[in-house]
Structure formats: structure tokens, C-alpha cells
Design brief:
It is a single chain. It contains seven helices and two strands. By secondary structure, it is mainly alpha-helical. The protein has one domain: all-alpha NTP pyrophosphatase fold. A two-stranded antiparallel ribbon has the order 1-2.
Length: about 160
């Protein structure tokens, strides 16, 4: 399945510009922080899925909580793509790994590579790995997009309330 992220890049651009004006920042002076934030959000996502907790029998958090953490990562991926001027806005939504743990680890590895390279090729590889987490969640891209737009509203509200 192919997904066109042009609309989400546009929405993220609006949020990034709003934040930049409110906090007197730009992409250059927040790049390291946004990469670290993405890695933290990936960890928070893994934590709520509990996919790596082999020692526990507790199930994953609710689908809403898992989606909320996933779209937090999506926000940072889109923001970083805007930062480097990414041209590719259409991706293929496909299952790559057999387990969520394996796909998250692949994503971590590729984000770390992007942190070193900071180019479109390494960004696209990392973002593709992140997108390919979604089939393992067994949710549609439309569901993820709705969760992103809901979180976008929350993020604008937070900015308006001096978050």
C-alpha cells in the first residue's frame, strides 16, 4: 500500500513554524534535540507496547495509548524531514519484520545512522523503517493519520497555553 504524506508534512510545517515563532528557534539550533526527542519517543512507544518485556505477562497499553506514542514519533520524523528539505513524500506501507521488537530496533539503528549522515537517503531509510512498524500494530494508515491530526490539535493547544 502506498501512502502520500504531503498533507502531514504541510501540517507539521505549520506546527514547526508556530513553535519557532513562539520560542525564537529554528531547525538548525534544534536539530540535535529533535533527533534525541525522536529516539526518546521511539523508546516511549516501545514501552507502551511492552513488546520487549519478555519477563512480564502484562499486555500492551490500549490501542489509543500506543497510537498516541507512535504519532509522537511521526511528528518528529516529519519535522526532521522538513528540516533537511526531504523531497520524497510518498512511501510504501509494508511489513518488513516478523516482530515489533525487531522493527523498532531496525528503526533505532537507522535513526542513529541518519544522525551521523544527516542526508535524505539515510532519513528515508529510517522513516521507511518507522512507517513499517504500523503493519505490526495491525491498524490502518488512515487510523494513524487520524491519531496524528488529533495529536496535532493537542500540540497547538499546548503551545497556545504556554506548554
Amino acid at each position: 500500500m502506498t501512502i502520500d504524506l504531503s498533507n502531514l508534512y504541510q501540517k507539521q510545517s505549520e506546527l514547526d513554524e508556530f513553535i519557532a515563532r513562539n520560542h525564537d528557534i529554528n531547525y538548525d539550533n534544534t536539530r540535535d534535540k529533535r533527533i534525541l526527542a525522536l529516539l526518546v519517543e521511539l523508546g516511549e512507544f516501545a514501552n507502551v507496547t511492552r513488546c520487549f518485556k519478555y519477563w512480564s505477562i502484562k499486555k500492551s497499553e490500549s490501542e489509543a495509548t500506543v497510537l498516541d506514542e507512535y504519532v509522537d514519533g511521526l511528528h518528529f520524523f516529519l519535522s526532521l524531514g522538513l528540516d533537511i528539505g526531504v523531497l520524497k513524500k510518498v512511501y510504501r506501507f509494508a511489513k518488513e519484520a516478523d516482530t515489533l521488537t525487531a522493527q523498532i530496533l531496525k528503526t533505532y539503528r537507522l535513526v542513529s545512522n541518519f544522525n551521523k549522515e544527516r542526508d535524505e537517503r539515510s532519513y528515508r531509510a529510517a522513516f521507511q523503517a518507522f512507517i513499517n512498524i504500523a503493519p505490526l500494530l495491525k491498524v490502518s494508515w488512515e487510523t494513524i493519520e487520524k491519531a496524528y491530526l488529533k495529536k496535532l490539535e493537542i500540540n497547538f493547544t499546548r503551545q497556545n497555553n504556554n506548554y
